Amino acid sequence: MSAFVADPRLAGRKVKRIAFTEEQIAARVRALGQEVAAAYPDGNLLVLGLLKGSFIFVSDLVRQVPRPLQVDFLVVSSYGNEMVSSGHVRLVYDPQASLQGLHILLVEDIVDSGRTLSLVIEVLQERQPASIEVCALLDKHHATHLTHAPRFVGFDAPNEFLVGYGLDHAENFRHLPYIASLE
Ligand code: PRP
Questions:
Q1: CA–CA distance, 111 with 116 (Å, rounded to integer)
Q2: Cα of 53 to ligand 1 centre, how many Å?
Q3: Does the CB atom of residue 139 touch ligand 1 within 6 A?
Q4: Residue 167 C-alpha to ligand 1 middle, in angstroms?
Q5: CATH number of this structure's domain 8-172
Q6: What's the pTM value of the predicted model, to 2 decimals?
Q7: Is the beta carbon of 168 within 6 A of some atom in ligand 1?
Q8: pLDDT for 115-166, tens place per residue?
Q9: How many Cβ atoms from other residues are within 10 Å of residue 47's Cβ?
Q10: DSSP code of 107?
Q11: Is 112 a catalytic residue?
Q12: Angle at 100 between CA 94 and CA 105, to 5 degrees
């Protein structure tokens, strides 16, 4: 789909095209839920969403995973566009005291450089979980900082500025039910 999309949520901003429709996302999230359940035949699973971008994806995904699980979120400190250096990343919101023995599924909206994920995984690994895997809705596949490739990926993302379904531009457009690229 291209050209102008007449959506009152956009407040006049034009979207170049819709990259993934609401229906495409729903179908893929349903399939991902099955993939996740199949990958964890036993053990305690904690789904950890990385805020803010993952908030819609997490809420849709967990309802499609037919097995017991718990949900929590992480907020990572960042300073402007620069994350603090590796080893000093700070969790602004820290999920729970002990992750020991839990299977952690870290949920990201989009993997770009991979820096966010790498830093978070490094911090979480110190807490001796049983495993850490990543589920990313979108992967741009040009991560150069990534030490831990996502095990579950919703879509290969085009190299465009994407908004919607949790992704923002200056905090706007997170509430779009589809994923679009801005003009
Ligand atoms: C965005 C996005 C990912 C990260 C990906 O988060 O939600 O978390 O950047 O980029 P990377 O792979 O290059 O690290 P942002 O810092 O914009 O915060 P937000 O989730 O609150 O939107």
A1: 8
A2: 7
A3: no
A4: 8
A5: 3.40.50.2020
A6: 0.90
A7: yes
A8: 888 889 988 998 999 999 999 999 998 877 677 899 999 999 999 999 999 9
A9: 21
A10: E
A11: yes
A12: 65
